[in-house]
Amino acid sequence: MATDLTQLELLTALEPVVGENIDRHLLIAKDWYPHDYVPWDQGRNFAALGGTDWDPDQSRLSEVAKIAMITNLLTEDNLPSYHRTIAQNFSTDGAWGTWVGRWTAEENRHAIAMRDYLIVTRSVDPIALENDRMVHLTRGVHAPEEFGGVLDQVAYVTFQELATRVSHRTTGAVCADPIADRMLARIAADENLHMIFYRNIAGAAFDLAPDQTIEAITKVVKNFAMPGTGMPNWRRNGVLMVKHGIYDLRQHLDEVLRPVLKIWKVFERNDFTARGEQSREELGTYLDKLGRDVIRFEEQRDRLLAREAAKSEKAFQAVR
């Protein structure tokens, strides 16, 4: 029976692939600047500098759009935790270290642009936003105990980057503001390139250590949670985002899990041992269950939205 590769062996064997994909990423990625995506002419001073403080009536975003923007921004804000996690699981040396630094620098732009937009346009309460940022970053983000090592981390960030891309794009749509939509489309493009980088590394890992890699993929898929889990008001805001299609089970299954697994040819590979086959079967069983859960969820959501629409119509008719 083949012996599993150690973390050091995996990192060493995958490093040339990391280097190749850094070169590819730098060739494709476009430089952009957060200040170009912010409508500065809408800005004005707050009371501390002789202006007026924030009032809810100043916001032109819907409640769902505000919640989605705040959730996405606070998620991006926790970059120090993410940097620590990937640095611990990858390396700060060689090609791995180069990628950790480049990825961190690119991700930081996202929070800069989103915060400047929200504050300048007075779309959300800046005091509440800052208080939530302090709470969220103080707590930090900690990977589940069962996630450990380069394969688990590469698998997780592949799915997470794509999930974040979807969330940014749908948030841009509900903002009903072409400036916000353009900004979030730019951020989503970054997330997509990051996903491709990690997806390529995981693809190489499949060829290097197929059993270990399918086990990592299965573990991550079954235990996946968005990185914003645990932020202030996470449960309430998450429910609203799911309810209004910012990021829901259908998107998770059809736009994130299935496309990535298809690229990796997970269910077509023939290089697994019995151990890997068992893990692949476990993954297939989970996806089948998730597919059934999606249908039930959508039926329940449709009924809920129909009841809310009927209630709103009834209230409207009562005041006519």
TrEMBL record:
It holds the Pfam family FA_desaturase_2. CDD domains: Acyl_ACP_Desat. Its cofactor is Fe(2+). The keyword Cell wall biogenesis/degradation does not apply. It comes from the Bacteria. Keywords: Fatty acid biosynthesis, Fatty acid metabolism, Iron, Lipid biosynthesis, Lipid metabolism, Metal-binding, Oxidoreductase. Belongs to the fatty acid desaturase type 2 family. Homodimer. PANTHER family: ACYL- ACYL-CARRIER-PROTEIN DESATURASE-RELATED, STEAROYL-[ACYL-CARRIER-PROTEIN] 9-DESATURASE 7, CHLOROPLASTIC. This is Acyl-ACP desaturase.
